[in-house]
Amino acid sequence: MNQLNEVNESLAQQLKGCLRGKSPAQVEAFCAHDWKQAARFELQRRATRFLEGLPDETLALVVSGEADLVALARRIAAP
Predict the structure, then answer these.
(1) In a shared domain, residues 56 and 18
(2) What angle do CA 22, 23, 27 make, to 5 degrees?
(3) pLDDT tens digits for 43-79?
């Protein structure tokens, strides 16, 4: 089974639990949601979660560009 099939199977199992017992109108309301946008938002939220623990002064340096998270990450990850 390829990765996409595995993901779809996992999603199907999760959706079965989420939609069990819902009325057709509730299912339609669920289907009308912009799931692509919600997933984009969730990925961004997860990617920036570590910022929660930084002090305000550090965040201000990131905002101003004095502290460059991308450059630091690349330097740290370099072999």
Answers:
(1) no
(2) 75
(3) 999 989 999 999 999 999 999 999 999 999 999 999 8
CA 74 to chain centre: 21
Domain that holds residue 56: 35-79
The neighbour count for residue 62, using CB atoms within 10 Å, is 14
Which residue type does 30 have?
Answer: F
Spatial separation of the C-alpha atoms in residues 11 and 27, rounded to whole Å: 15
Cα distances from 72 to residues 62, 68, 75, in angstroms, run 11, 6, 5
Q: Are residues 39 and 54 in the same domain?
A: yes
Q: Which residue has the tokens 């340096």?
A: 61
Which contiguous run of DSSP H or E holds residue 7? helix 3-19
Domain tally for the chain?
2
| CA 23 – CA 28 distance, rounded (Å) | 9
